Amino acid sequence: MSLKAVPLKVVTEKQNEKYGYAMTRTKQLLIALTSTLLIFIVWLQQGNLILLVSVLFALPFVINQAFLVCTGFIIFSYFRIHEAFPVLMPLHIPQLLALASLAGLGWQLWLKRETIIWQKLHTQLVIFSVWVFVSCIMATNRGEAFANFNGNFIKIFIMVFAISWLPTKLSQLKMIPVLLIFSGLCIGLLALYNKANGIGLVEGTRVTIGRDIGSMLGDPNDLALVLQFPVAFALAYSFHGARWQRGLTFIILIILIMSILATQSRGGLLGIASGIFTLTLLKSRSIIMPIILSSIGLFLLVLFAGISDRSSGGAAESGVDESAMGRLYAWQAAINMALANPFTGVGLNNFYFNYYFYSPHWDGKNHAVHSTWLQITGETGFAGLVLFLLMVIGALKVSYLLLKRLENHEMKPLAQGLWLGMLSFCVSGTFLTQGTTWPLYILIGLLLALDRLTLTQGERYAHSD
Questions:
Q1: Is residue 219 classed as helix, strand or coil in its secondary structure?
Q2: pTM of the model
Q3: Which of 174, 153, 162 is closest to 66 using CA atoms?
Q4: Percent of the chain having pLDDT more than 90?
Q5: Residue 51, domain member (yes or no)
Q6: CA distance linking residue 456 with residue 409, whole number of Å
Q7: How far is CA 104 from the centre of its chain?
Q8: Does any domain span residue 28?
């Protein structure tokens, strides 16, 4: 009897294990489905408040994938995905991702507090940010300055540390360029669609996105700026990876360039030309060929962009065109602001509101500064400009060292993309206002993260000293 009972007992245990596991999975699915239905029903009654409560269910994912959540927030904030596709606006995705990012960042920093590396570029960022805060205190319009500081700049500041500290392995950084290129492709295709259908055109020819809802992408120069960022990575990754990857990236690069051409932004064209020049310089040992190719490329870009068709700055205007003169007046106004307030300037985001008082020419409306360097000069003073330049130079130094150190490393494409991005920022920043917007600071965060994750043990010890 005992011999017969043993096989029966074994079979019964296996069957219980098998069917018990199946029952567990079924229960899990039923619980998940029921919870989802309950959240949906309560959301119908209580609105978006339940979405905040439902984040509690996602906390395990947020903790384990904090860097991915942070990346999602950056992409939505930088590319304004919810404004480009207004159907997403009621979901308040940027706000939810921001809360999740902060929760994940706080938890991860607590767990990894002993392995965090503080780098020199962190210090330069903090010093400049403190000076921006001081400029807000001394601003001519404190309300506007602190509204921008609390609503925009402080998010950028925090996310630099999130980008630089949250990734724990290089594979996490590898997905960043892919997401940036794909997001740029979505915005670029939408821009070309608007151009083809005459939606939101400025001056009759310059494409925009979401102009009717007041989106940041509603300005053609800002749209060119947003598209400029993924172009740098598309340029670098067009020469790396499998053949199909290079081919696909090159097609996306063409779409991105075409969408920037549709904005007819001269700053955007210079940014593309600088990227082509730098990439050719990296691939060639002679400086003559890069100069020739970039000059030809810039000429073709201007030709295909149709800048001569612009109502401002086009061929119809003789001498120094209206657009150029407006930019010169804005630059002079920025210098006058710094001369009147040499230490702190007129305050963060206060250039537009002070244009009337400092411009040598008044045409009945205020204007943007259209220069990163002069924006910083006018809004944070000469002291702020020095601190900003030290931070940019520090980022360029880190980028160049990474470019040399990772020459034969698997992360070489990312290092090249960051180097191209930094140089494109410096060139296009002369004509585009991006001193306190996302591009530079995303680059800084990625540079710090890549530098930290590729350091040897000896170099890491040197950084911690």
A1: coil
A2: 0.78
A3: 162
A4: 29
A5: no
A6: 13
A7: 20
A8: no
Sort 194 into a burial class: Cβ within 10 Å, 0-12 / 13-18 / 19+: buried
Q: What is the pLDDT of residue 141?
A: 92
Euclidean distance between CA atoms 289 and 308, whole angstroms? 28
Q: How far apart are CA 417 and CA 372, in angstroms?
A: 21
Q: Are 103 and 363 in contact (CB under 8 A)?
A: no
Residue type, position 207, single letter: V
For residues 316 and 77, what is the distance between their CA atoms, to the nearest angstrom? 38
The residues, ordered by sequence, that sit 6+ positions from 166 with a Cβ below 8 Å of its Cβ are: 66, 67, 70, 104, 105, 108, 449
Sole residue written with tokens 């210090």:
123
Q: Token pair for residue 410?
A: 């698997």
Task: Kindly state the tokens that stand for 180.
Answer: 């940036």
For residue 2, the one-letter residue type is S
81/292 Cα distance (integer angstroms): 37
- Pairwise CA distance, residues 93 & 72, whole Å: 9
Domain count, the chain: 1
Residue 15 identity: Q
User: Does 120 fall in a domain?
Assistant: yes
For residue 11, being part of any structural domain is answered with no
Q: Is residue 391 over pLDDT 50? A: yes
Q: Is the separation of the CB atoms in 399 and 419 below 8 Å?
A: yes
Which range (189-203, 313-327, 376-390) has the least confidence?
A: 313-327
283: domain range?
60-314+335-464
